[in-house]
Amino acid sequence: MFGYVKPFLPELKLKDYALYRAVYCSLCRMIRTRYGLVSTRFLSYDMTFLALLSLSAKSSFSTEKHPCSVNPFKKHSVVEDDAVIPAADASIVLYYHKLRDTAIDAKGIKKLGAKAALLLFRRAYRRAGTVIPAYDAEVRLQLDRLNELEKANSASIDATSDCFGKILSALAPMISNGRNPIPFEQLLYFIGKYIYLVDAADDLSDDLKNGDYNPIAVRRHLSLGDYETQYHGEVRQMLLDNLSAAALAFELAETESCRDLLGNIIYPGLTGIVNAVLDGTYDAKSSVVERGLRI
Fold this sequence. Notes:
By secondary structure, this protein is mostly helical. It has helices at 14-35, 45-55, 85-105, 108-131, 133-151, 157-169, 172-175, 181-210, 215-219, 232-252, 259-279; strands at 62-67, 75-80. A two-stranded antiparallel ribbon has the order 1-2. Strand 1 (62-67) and strand 2 (75-80) form a beta hairpin. Helix 6 packs across helix 8. The longest helix is centred in the middle third of the chain and has 30 residues, at 181-210. The two termini are 24 Å apart.
């Protein structure tokens, strides 16, 4: 359910692309420093966006060259700023709970893999949970609520996506850094709803094949063999409505820096992902969106 918040490459300035890479590497380095090398598995593009929001409170910040965690013989530019710490801590808590849910809901090898990962990352999670206990409790509360809705086969996309919206909006106090937190709460809330829904759209075919819960399938009474694309217009509109609300909140948010890069992610980036997912051209492995933008 992660990896759907990325910049749009065709409209990305070279300096902003360099900044994005530097913040991504900074988050990786911060996770490794605080929780160990193996915990960098929790690194994500979505949390890089969170780190950028936190850094945007600063008028300036410095970068330094550091060896890459994957390839120590290669150095990358890394942002040197403690504003990245909340994103690192939240990454551990959020992804640990995601593993917990997978261990409960999945089957076969996927279930066994999640259980093994839970044991491997438990120490890192316990440390992060003591650093941000209120956020840890909120993530657990909302995911438990989401699980109940899914078990009840809820047809309410608004109710299920609301859980994930609240998970992300709870991060606002951690990244507002003295700024008015309300625009950041709203921005993260609607991006959280977008992430849940675009993930459901991306997984629709697989969920129908496997018989797994999917709010779109339940809402439209879809079954395997149905022509799913006939519902793309409705799903696309719901996604764009969430993105419009997120964009409005972004316009009200105070940002001293990173605004061009954040704007690239929020406007063409997220819209491009919506279209690419619905067109079947989305590349989950790429750090940027290279195609799929149309309004």
